[in-house]
Amino acid sequence: MREALLGGPHLQKVARLAIPGYATASSGQQAAIIEGLRTRLQVEATRRRRNQPADLYTITYADQDRQTAHRVVDQAAQALSRQRNRQQPGGLRAGATILTQQIAEYR
What we know:
mainly alpha; two-stranded antiparallel sheet; globular
């Protein structure tokens, strides 16, 4: 799950929605922004039982601008939620509710 979130397409979407100026940056600048996200965005999974899917994810990102950091984490959490829901369609509501509650707590 972590690898999927930190893959190019997901990071591009996070950057487009969360990083000011990404859309108007040159392709080289965009690549640098994506690489910065890849190195500074951390996603940790916690499992209750071995060989089971993770049931808790911690997403962290550091930036000089607090609002940018918040947007990056928010967009990454939404991308993670969408990815997880695709893999576990039976738990869509429960997973979305848990993530929404966790996001509200951190705000």
